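HOLO CASE FILE
Compound: fe (ii) ion
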Amino acid sequence: MTELLDRLNREHRALSRVLDLFDDLLDGFHEGREPDYELLCEMLEYMESYSDQVHHPSEEDIFDRLRARTNESYPVLDLLTKQHQLLGQMNKRFRRSLEGIVHEEVLRRDEVEVQGRELVKTLREHLDLEETEAFPLARERLSASDWDELRPEASSMEDPLLGSTQQERFRSLFRHLAEQDES
Ligand SMILES: [Fe+2]
Ligand SMILES: [Fe+2]
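Model generated. Tokens follow.
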């Protein structure tokens, strides 16, 4: 019944580790070091191609079902839905700024750092709100048949960081996560 929620929770843990790496890169950037652009690009690619395209839409399916099941309004779900859209935009904006730096456009480093920090902060708060409020609500209010029906709708694409098939595509990211494990 909660297979889907378990998957989403596992993905949150994978994403949290990416956010820790993100923080480290931004700290270095703040101190004037050039970030590892390959790593940063893979992180953004992961967030755009998996979090925004698969993870968040699976959650939207759950939220829509909750909304459809009761006549209540759910401000917390509405906020999360708004954040799903906002996070996609923040991600794209940050990626454009990074590309600007790589192509030597004149950009203020502190502004680029703020964009990165905001993205990390919003995403952390988002994951937390889902785990503390939205998922418990879904667990409590959706029936076994709701979960059965949600299952086929949920994408079968696996999180690249939790499987072994996309290690080449996210080579730098896998390597840094492994180093994080060792330290
Ligand atoms: Fe989400
Ligand atoms: Fe989530």
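CASE NOTES: The helical segments are 3-30, 37-69, 75-102, 109-141, 144-153, 171-182. Residues 56, 59, 80, 84, 126, 130 surround fe (ii) ion (ligand 1) (CB under 6 Å).
CLOSED: yes
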